[in-house]
Every structure is written in structure tokens, then in C-alpha cells.
Design a protein that fits this description.
Strand content of chain A: over 45%
Largest sheet of chain B: 6 strands, mixed
Distance between the termini of chain B: 38 Å
Mean pLDDT of chain B: 93
Structural class of chain B: mainly beta
Radius of gyration of chain A: 13 Å
Largest interface: A-B, 29 and 28 residues
Radius of gyration of chain B: 14 Å
Oligomer: heterodimer
Distance between the termini of chain A: 37 Å
Number of helices of chain B: 0
Number of strands of chain A: 11
Number of strands of chain B: 12
Low-confidence stretches of chain B: none
Helix content of chain B: under 10%
Structural class of chain A: mainly beta
Low-confidence stretches of chain A: none
Shape of chain B: globular
Shape of chain A: globular
Largest sheet of chain A: 7 strands, mixed
Order of helices and strands of chain B: EEEEEEEEEEEE
């Protein structure tokens, strides 16, 4: 069964550095998402992406964050000038369309640790 | 107001017994979808089951079933014949048709299956 893949599985970065998290969504999916889960807390929506542009974003997704689909398969989340509070698990997800009955398929996540 | 409320931070169940994980939701949309995800200790998010707001039958998927009570705005997950591998965090999520395509997650329930 096709799946969403994320790399790396764990990223350790010094505070103030830039980090890029990578995702390969399921190939016939059109909608892509990033979520964040701070340790012990619930999963929070960051951004959704469709047709090469952001379709929706939360207030967490400020100017520090950006997303890109640099080619036909990858979907990236860039965090500029990382802060300690950016430490979290970051999940990429994709869905075939945006109908309410479609599940979003999640990757295994990237655990980001900011030192 | 919280979109998704899960009031049981932790639950225990004896192996082979059934367990119900509670979820209530808040929406003014007529069309929405309710989802349950399992998150093992390894961290990945696994889609379990879906219930649509217009579905008259409760969803079932193997040992998982969803007790959908629309008037009460509840969508409880029932796991029958619990197995040790069911020990994990369980998240209830909702997707609304009219307000974008992000998922709203609850705070999760940690289920421990006792041998």
C-alpha cells in the first residue's frame, strides 16, 4: 500500500539554524499538509498546500515557516532561525482530495530537537 | 470552544475485552467527517476508521467500530477483543466541509492493554 514517507526521522539542530523537513506524499494525492505535535500534546495543524500554493494555514505558521514543492514528488517544510519551542514531531500528510470523507494519510514523522 | 474533546487521558483494558474511547465534537457544519487515528509509541499516525456526518450506519473496520450519536455529537471508538498491540495513543479528529480541509485533533487517550 502506498505511503507517505518523511526524512529524516530525527533531526537535531542548533537554535537559530535553518532546518528543512522533507516529505514524499502518496503519488496520486493532490492535497498536502504539515502538522506539529509537541511532546505529550495534541496534533496541531500548520498548513495545507494545493496546486502549488498554500490553501490554508494556522496562526502557528508564521513568517518563520515556509513550504515548497520543489519537484513532482517532494514537499518540504522549512523553518528559519529555529527556536527551542520548535522542538516537536512534525508530520506530513496527504489526501486525494478535500472531501470531508477522505482520510489524510500521515507519514511516520520527523522528530525535531532544537538545542 | 474545542472542536474535539477526548475526556479520558488514560484507559486500561484487559486483553480480549472490549473498550470504548470517548470523543465529542463541536461543529455547526452539516457535512463533516470524523476519524480515529492510532499512534503507537514509535510515533507514526495510523488511520483506523471514518464516519461521515450523513452516514446512517455506524462505521466498522475489523475490530474497530464507531458508535456515532449525531444528536449528542459523539463519535466513540469501540475496540473489541483487545490485543496487546492495541496499546497506544488514540486520537479522534474531525474535518469540516465548509471551513477548509485541516483536521482538528483531540488531546488523545492513552490505552494500555493488560495481559
Amino acid at each position: 500500500e502506498p505511503e507517505v514517507t518523511q526524512t529524516p526521522s530525527h533531526q537535531v539542530t542548533q537554535m537559530g539554524q535553518e532546518v528543512i523537513l522533507r516529505c514524499v506524499p502518496i503519488s496520486n494525492h493532490l492535497y498536502f499538509y504539515w502538522y506539529r505535535q509537541i511532546l505529550g500534546q495534541k496534533v496541531e495543524f500548520l498548513v495545507s498546500f494545493y496546486n502549488n500554493e498554500i490553501s490554508e494555514k494556522s496562526e502557528i505558521f508564521d513568517d518563520q515557516f515556509s513550504v515548497e514543492r520543489p519537484d513532482g514528488s517532494n514537499f518540504t517544510l522549512k523553518i528559519r532561525s529555529t527556536k527551542l519551542e520548535d522542538s516537536a514531531m512534525y508530520f506530513c500528510a496527504s489526501s486525494r482530495d478535500r472531501l470531508s470523507n477522505q482520510p489524510q494519510h500521515f507519514g511516520d514523522g520527523t522528530r525535531l530537537s532544537i538545542l | 470552544a474545542q472542536k474535539i474533546t477526548q475526556t479520558q487521558p488514560g484507559m486500561f483494558v484487559q486483553e480480549k475485552e472490549a473498550v470504548t474511547l470517548d470523543c465529542t465534537y463541536d461543529t455547526s457544519d452539516q457535512s463533516y467527517g470524523l476519524f480515529w487515528y492510532k499512534q503507537p509509541s514509535s510515533g507514526e499516525m495510523i488511520f483506523l476508521i471514518y464516519q461521515g456526518s450523513y452516514d446512517e450506519q455506524n462505521a466498522t473496520e475489523g475490530r474497530y467500530s464507531l458508535n456515532f450519536q449525531k444528536a449528542r455529537k459523539s463519535a466513540n471508538l469501540v475496540i473489541s477483543a483487545s490485543q496487546l498491540g492495541d496499546s497506544a495513543m488514540y486520537f479522534c479528529a474531525m474535518r469540516e466541509s465548509n471551513t477548509g480541509n485541516q483536521f482538528y485533533f483531540g488531546t488523545g487517550t492513552s490505552l494500555t492493554v493488560i495481559p
